[in-house]
Write a structure and sequence with these properties.
By secondary structure, the chain is α+β, with helices and mostly antiparallel strands. The protein is 41% helix and 17% strand.
């Protein structure tokens, strides 16, 4: 199993210049490759292979006067830029042919030097090294100071240097771990219903309040955005204001990610199986609740649950998004009519009183157990007698009975 470990790095001013040069060279090679393939397609030519692209845009381009500066950076960085382009094309082709599941993937686009995120990648061929003093040695860049918050479980296979919109630098290591980190078995399973009023409601009745990090930071963000709008375009003050806004958003993102990591780790450690509903976040993001939906971060939270469950030997399951978890009675299995969002509790005809979210979490747990467990738990409870008021016959039942009786007599 492959995992990423991110650490903050602090390059010197000279190293920042070298990193900026590497970012630019990787971007140019990527754009040249994309332009070359687009031109070949418009001309009706064949799809240019990866090896041919590397030969023409790296090996031969370094010998030309207008691309000689490509030799100032590590060749691995340039090769990985083309590898990213090839991956983007493969994902696009797999998407339009139906081999790739999920949303339709767009074709690769040109990279801009004004993009808020810049990244380069070094593989083992680049011979990067973690020194004994804790610094990260990169070819043609130097020894970077890394703020180690934990140790790596194994030798990394690659490292990516990332610069975000806030001007921060990170080193992202890819490591491979063995599947021997399974936790001791837990005796409980839980269904999780994700929402906006409460971020998560468990099938055992536990409710986790929604932290609403973006809403809490809205006043500060508004003030910074207003200050940015007053700055003259192209000025140094505007560039500084842009960085301040990016840092405020980065603080919100980091706080949300830290909180989700803690909650997801607690759920995985305390339960043998975790089941969630497969929500259509993209569709909900087009409604009037879009800001609250994106602030909640359901997709990132469920992704954390999934990979942590796989890492620690737990079971994780997604219940179909069309499963009527809210409208179904967890006691008798009756499916009621659609309910408005302001209905937080309701009574079933079987006599059960339900909290809307707790009932949905119970149904999610039952559906997950039926789909992913070997015990064969039922998604819906067994048959129950109909209430007296509902025990009626169809209007034409008597006629049907007489006709059948007449036929049997003849």
């Amino acid at each position: 199993m492959q995992l990423r470990y991110n650490f903050r790095v602090y390059p010197t001013s000279d190293q920042q210049i070298e990193l900026a040069r590497a970012f630019g060279c990787a971007r140019v090679v990527f754009n040249d490759g994309l332009l070359l393939r687009q031109a070949a397609r418009e001309a009706g030519g064949k799809y240019i292979s990866d090896a041919e692209l590397s030969r023409r845009l790296i090996t031969e381009a370094k010998r030309t006067p207008h691309r000689a500066w490509l030799g100032e950076v590590s060749s691995v960085v340039l090769q990985q830029a083309l590898a990213d382009l090839n991956t983007a094309y493969r994902n696009f082709f797999a998407s339009i042919t139906g081999k790739r599941k999920g949303r339709r993937v767009a074709p690769p686009r040109f990279r801009s030097r004004k993009d808020s995120r810049q990244a380069i990648r070094f593989t083992k061929n680049a011979r990067f090294k973690i020194l004994d003093n804790g610094r990260l040695r990169l070819p043609k860049i130097g020894d970077l100071h890394v703020r180690w918050s934990r140790s790596l479980p194994s030798v990394p296979s690659s490292v990516a240097i990332i610069k975000d919109a806030a001007g921060r630098y990170f080193a992202s290591f890819v490591v491979t771990i063995d599947q021997d980190e399974a936790l001791p078995p837990a005796g409980s399973e839980v269904g999780v219903d994700l929402g906006l009023t409460h971020f998560a409601v468990m099938s055992d009745g536990t409710k986790v309040a929604a932290p609403k990090f973006l809403r809490r930071a809205a006043r500060r963000l508004k003030r910074l955005q207003q200050a940015l709008s007053r700055k003259q375009k192209g000025s140094a003050g505007r560039r500084k204001a842009v960085v301040k806004v990016a840092r405020a958003h980065a603080r919100v993102t980091d706080t949300r990610r830290d909180w989700q990591h803690k909650l997801s780790t607690a759920l995985v450690r305390e339960n043998q199986a975790v089941y969630v509903e497969d929500l259509c976040v993209v569709g909900l993001g087009r409604t009037r609740l879009a800001k609250s939906v994106h602030d909640a971060g359901w997709a990132s939270f469920t992704a954390m649950l999934e990979y942590k469950a796989a890492r620690y030997g737990r079971t994780f399951g997604r219940v179909d998004r069309f499963f009527p978890s809210t409208r179904m009675c967890s006691a008798c299995g009756r499916i009621n009519e659609k309910m408005a969002l302001n209905v937080r509790a309701w009574d079933c005809l079987c006599g059960s009183h339900h909290d809307r979210d707790v009932n949905a979490a119970k149904n999610v747990k039952a559906a997950g157990q039926a789909d992913f467990n070997d015990r064969g738990a039922q998604v819906r409870p067994g048959l129950v007698p109909a209430p007296r008021g509902e025990a009626v016959t169809r209007p034409d039942a008597a006629c049907s009975a007489r006709s059948v009786e007449g036929i049997s007599v003849l």
